[in-house]
Amino acid sequence: MSQSTTTPLRVMFCIGITQNFFDLPTGEGIEVWKGFSAMMKSLASLPGVHVLGAIDDDRLMVGPSTTSPWTVYIMADVPDYDTVVAACNLFRTTPVGQYSLWRYAKVEARVGRALEIPAEAR
Asked: Residue 82: its pLDDT value, please?
């Protein structure tokens, strides 16, 4: 039995927090945070997914983000396109009270490959 040598996809999940989050009464945002935490755990537990890191940009960019620059970025190695789709779908399926996470956040995925500088260029 041979091992697969397929190179994973390098994916940047770009996440924007929407106005619906900011419209919540003070103190109710914690439910969104719980949903966001559950989504991140679910993403990291998808088969073959290796989360490389995440950054939160809400100290220099305040308010909702409907386009770039995004509020949160998660970089991960993902085995295939279907798994990228499954990761994005977590925003539809992760509950936040009577709604789903996508009421409060949106996601776009950028798919590429790891940047490798040729040896002769180093």
From this structure: 98
